[in-house]
Design brief:
- With about 325 residues, the protein is of the alpha/beta class.
- The chain folds into two domains: about 30-125 and about 250-310, Bordetella uptake gene, domain 1 (D-Maltodextrin-Binding Protein, domain 2); about 125-225, 3-Layer(aba) Sandwich (D-Maltodextrin-Binding Protein, domain 2).
- The protein is built from eleven helices and ten strands.
- The protein is globular and about 65 Å long.
């Protein structure tokens, strides 16, 4: 009798679980959702968090609250969400930096991007443009590398600190180009531009959108873009691969991620809502910021892309001589 009773209870629990999951997802969200941007205010992580958060709040009837958690590059905020409850109320903006580069920059980043997170959607990608002082005695990548080899230690690159795309690209130019150039760390991009215009620093690999103002006003000159294709708003600037100097491409991409054990019904609901948000012309325009590329991929394509990036960058950074901290 006891065995029959226990069996009946087991069947009841098993049969009711899908119903409970469906009910939970249909009611979700019932309280505000936190989106962590693992950086200070401003920049790509913050932009994606606020643009998507605002639209999702409008669509889903609950506030998506953006929380900036900088520290250790993008480590602090990413570690926080890796350990957060997997209930759909704790999300993070994932990007090239925290989901691919950190594994090659740190011996123990404190999380595994492939096992600790579920990608909801990658929504936008931005290239970088290498710019330099107008007075530099060269106008293309080949001549720049020739000059650097002939004048070891003379050229310097402004960077926005370890872990940033600016730092990685400058380090790769130095390592893959086999040249002796000085990397000068700054706290943000604006101080670099002040010194570029003032003649105190020579080169800077920065977000393509940000460089446009200085190029259009003829204050700086451009040498290459880091993406596979030329930027739509700068078709005259060659890609790194087109310059023939190195087989290198890099785009900084961003999207929303959830902790790995978030219920599948909630994951799918969030994906549908993000897809709906991305149909808005206003959302797309804000995310593009002039030179951004809107990304549209299904689940399998997203997972394949993330796996490729997570495998590629640690290996490439090691080959370029970048030592893990």
């Amino acid at each position: 009798m006891l065995i029959k009773t226990l069996f009946a209870l087991a069947v009841l629990v098993a049969s009711s679980s899908p119903t409970w999951a469906q009910q939970a997802s249909s009611e979700y969200p019932t309280k505000p959702i936190r989106i962590v941007a693992p950086s200070a205010a401003g920049g790509g992580f913050d932009l994606v968090a606020r643009v998507l958060g605002s639209k999702l709040s409008e669509q889903m009837g609950q506030q998506f609250v953006v929380e900036n958690r900088s520290g250790g590059g993008t480590l602090a905020g990413t570690q926080l969400i890796a350990k957060a409850p997997a209930d759909g109320y704790h999300l993070i903006v994932g990007g090239l930096s925290n989901m691919a580069l950190n594994a090659g920059l740190y011996k123990n980043p404190g999380y595994d991007p492939m096992t600790d997170f579920i990608p909801l959607r990658i929504v936008v990608s931005h290239s970088y443009t290498l710019v330099g002082r107008k007075e530099l005695p060269f106008n293309n990548m080949k001549d720049m590398l020739t000059y650097a080899k002939a004048n070891p230690g003379k050229l310097n690159f402004g960077t926005s600190g370890p872990g940033t795309g600016q730092f990685i690209l400058a380090s790769l130019i130095k390592g893959l180009g086999n040249v002796d150039i000085q990397l000068v760390p700054y706290k943000g991009a604006q101080p670099v531009y002040m010194d570029l215009l003032g003649g105190r620093v020579d080169l800077f690999f920065d977000n393509t959108t940000t460089t446009r103002t200085y190029l259009e006003s003829n204050q700086l000159k451009a040498f290459a873009v880091s993406s596979r294709q030329r930027a739509p708003d700068g078709p005259q600037i060659p890609t790194l691969m087109e310059t023939g100097t190195m087989d290198l491409e890099m785009e900084t991409w961003f999207g929303l991620f959830a902790p790995a054990k978030t219920p599948s019904a909630i994951v799918e609901k969030l994906r549908l809502e993000i897809d709906k948000a991305m149909q808005s012309a206003d959302v797309r325009k804000k995310l593009q910021q002039g030179s951004g590329r809107i990304v549209q991929m299904n689940n399998a394509e997203t997972e394949s892309m993330l796996k490729s990036e997570a495998n590629k960058w640690p290996r490439l950074l090691k080959n370029a001589g970048i030592v893990q901290e």
